Protein 1
Amino acid sequence: MLNKLVIIGVGLIGGSFSLALREAGLVREIVGVGRSLENLSAALGTYVIDSSSQDAAQAVPGADLVLLAVPVGQMGEIMAAIAPHLGPNTVISDVGSTKQDVAALARQHLGEHFVRFVPGHPIAGSESSGVKAARGDLFRERNVVLTPLAETDPAAKALLTRLWEACGANVTEMTPQQHDAVFAAVSHLPHLLAFALVDYIANQANADQLFSFAASGFRDFTRIAGSSPEMWRDICLANRDALLQQIDGYEQELARIKAFIAASDGVNLAELFAHARDARRHHLKNI
């Protein structure tokens, strides 16, 4: 049971975490911190939080857990602001999509509280953002990756594991390096490609005509381009090296497909498509 949970960034992920723990009966008081009074008012109105503040430093005293659910580009500033006001037993975690940079920021800014920082990443969400999209079952049967560090207090890690499991999630562990390499390929690159395709079509002279004929294939592929530009800007820059490596590999794959098409090589083109189809069926059976 948490007596006080502070969520800094009450959006889809932070709001859903709050709702899930409230439904599980594991938290007595939830304080939401954010920049937008409109969003905080919406969170109060939907029972996601019990009280709100625009000042993170004022909100965190007495907290059992502080969850940083903000874009990774904002985390360093927030960590520096809250560090002097954290209690001796307060556990801190985050939900960022990159982990090496967040771990480095925590090491830099949290001081003595660093040992109780447990980096995390729930693999859940949608193209919708904001607290109005939050729901208590968002993490059910979804993966949550924790990336504890050598210094991480085992009790802090155990607390986060129990809380995420109470949200219905499957908790796994990786190193920050492993995490960033994996998600550069299966999350960050797909988002980048979706944004790039929509931007490419939008810059065509006949963009209105092209979009008017876009059917389900285009909509499915580009759905994630409806995500937060600020968040994905920060993710791409934070995981730059791993993402650039994946972009290089994808460019090589496109060059191979381009060569097959230019040579009217239907045999190799069909083999490549069949290999991709079979791989998807084998590895993504539940999607």
Protein 2
Amino acid sequence: MKRMLPLLTLLTAFPALSTDMYLPALPMLSEFWHQPASVVNLTLVLFFVVFCFFLLVYGPVSDRFGRRRPLLVGIAVYVIASLACACANGVWMLLIARIFQAAGAASAAALSMAMCKDLFEGRMREQMLAHIAVSMALAPMLAPIIGSWILALFNWRCIFLVLMAMGVVAFWGVLRMPETLREANHCGAVQVAMGYVRLLGNRRYTSLTVMMALTALPFFAFIAGSSEIYITHFSLSEKQFGCFFAFNAVAMMAGAFTFSRLSHFMPSTRLLSIGLGGICIGGLGMALISHNSPWSLALPMWVVSFCCGICRPPSNHLILEQVTRDAGAASSLIAFCFMMFASAGMWLISLNWADRINVIAFLAVISGGITFFAWQVVLKKWRLHEPKGGLQPENVAVAVSENI
């Protein structure tokens, strides 16, 4: 089973690598094709819109036909579209190719978590999600740095060729893997699509999904606003910015790694409480210190990112524990909800704020504080009716549905 980890990690990294790796090339493309930045940025915006839509498509399809076939189709589309991006001779050709690339990339993001639920249970699933969380943390942080290296050595077309090669590797891995879904849903297409209706009626699942997706706000606000803050506000060079960016990437990786180690000695519910509280504390620290140095952002944001890394594995496991069917749709909806909050954070930080660091701090305090408080209410309510077997995620979720 653990042999699936490299493939699941690669599939999880698809979205961030596809959206962030070519970010350093956007100004160059605008100048190269004599197009305004608003037109070139459509290649990013429409990718995101199409990607989110297809997230909701692949889940129910995989519940009916299995994970393997939709993945093969999606990744094949991704590979062909990536090659078309590399061969684009104008912004409109690139725009069309990016739309198809998004449609293919969504298959990997939607189904990687569903495959994890298919293959693993209990603590093993938590451990696997912790390993996968490392790639989820590193990919959006390191992708722009990798893209800038490729630009320095080659040209922007090579970025899409690298993405195509990544797709070929993933296609080969999926081709060799067995089907992970034990029992496919052989109902009609309409009945399978009704899985979303069933999920939205599952108060335990929806409450936890929305609650944990809140933590994406400060993290993605930082990703979207960090270049302007470090380079424009603190007058750092692009190379210095890359170092600070990588410093934050290490924090997320360290958080997920710390969870995987501490979960052997502490309940995952307690670690989740620590992580949510830490997000709030990191935001408070960012708000209270003076912003006269890049470290005034880097250090408290390190705390926020580290705690986000701790939270992701147990929260994803807890959410997946609430469904016994429609796992593909459930995985898609988790990714969709997370991406919606991520986009909200990126949109908020892009507004004309006088101090963007305080905005990130505010988002960390609010999202971390609300989620931490809600989680403590859940735990307190549950302990009043604690059944035999101790504090287990599936038992805690009963309290979630009654309180949120």
Protein 3
Amino acid sequence: MKALMFGWEFPPHISGGLGTASYGLTRGLAKAGVEILFVMPKAYGDEDSSIGRIINASDVFTKTSIFGSEYWKNVDFLTISSGLMPYLGVEEYESLRQESIHHKSFASHLGTKYQFTGKYGENLMEEVVRYAMVAATIASEQQFDIIHAHDWLTYLAGIVAKRISGKPLVIHVHATEFDRSGESVNQTVYDLEKLGMNEADAIMAVSNLTRNIVITKYNIDESKVFAVHNAVDFSGHETNAVTRKMNESIVTFLGRITFQKGPEYFIEAASKVLKRTQNVCFVMAGSGDMMNRMVKRVAKLNMGAKFHFTGFLKGDDVNRMYSYSDVYVMPSVSEPFGISPLEAMRSGVPVIISKQSGVSEVLKHAIKINFWDVDALADSIYALLNYKGVRQMITRCGYEEVNSFSWNDTAKIVKDIYSSILYA
């Protein structure tokens, strides 16, 4: 069985959980005997090729003969007049804007070759459409059995590949526009998500929470929507002891500082904890469009000496942050899944997660609160910091639990969904 897979990012060059999940799943599928052709907008050459063949969309000459065909009849609605930058931190905007000035394509007798940034800059929607153009050429040249498109950025590419090849399409919903924006959805993104869902032969959602959103908010037939929970890959991960230069306990929030992740609830809970004990400090690691607002709120609450902003972390810095932490908090307003609590648990850190997260469906040894219940969050943080028996039990059981999760198990479920479509 051979899958043509479209993704927007892949380790080690990632911006969040999407790339991590794509990598874990492809590794599991490769072990399950599925051959993978993984297409990404911009490959750097240091990606793990053991998962299959990685195709760099920036190296593909598109066939101009395809452009005038019926396959493009659903592209016209994608024209937008303003920048669209989900996942983008404020401090990254200017550098990406300058990069986009030099973003070029060139033509030859072979066709047109597009140079993608593979990021989330102001030319994002332009790249989404061009990525679909490249997908048309790839689908006409490669042999495969099924198409797998990760998240809304690649749905159009998956649709075009399906129409070119006649092969079935599976889309993987890692998040929806309702997760990212609440009820203030970007209509263009919503329309593209719904188009992908309508065209797909099967839809894989990363949790039952996300599955219900797909069914109710996008009016999709529930018979073709499957909940497939994420896992976590700990191969090559070492939990190293670190030396801290401070005696205070550390409570950590690590993620995009955006509406979806609930950073304001973390700050309000921190304020309540500090009224009960001073032997603690709080760390907010990440970047996003709410960063300035959160800094101002911390200042207004007079917590500057007890609250630290690290900016965006990646790679070893993320693992080091987990090692420094005594408690990890994920107070997300709407979290399709949430891999970071699993990573924290693997590092021996007790976690507090919102009930509005997909990962709460599979975790037993984590404290679960409603994202809006700041008092419950503050009480939970205080308990983990001050009641040794509670902390040790949750830490020990959580470590054992998280080590039972495997992408290999998730991959078997995905392969079964592939087979149900191909051999129906």
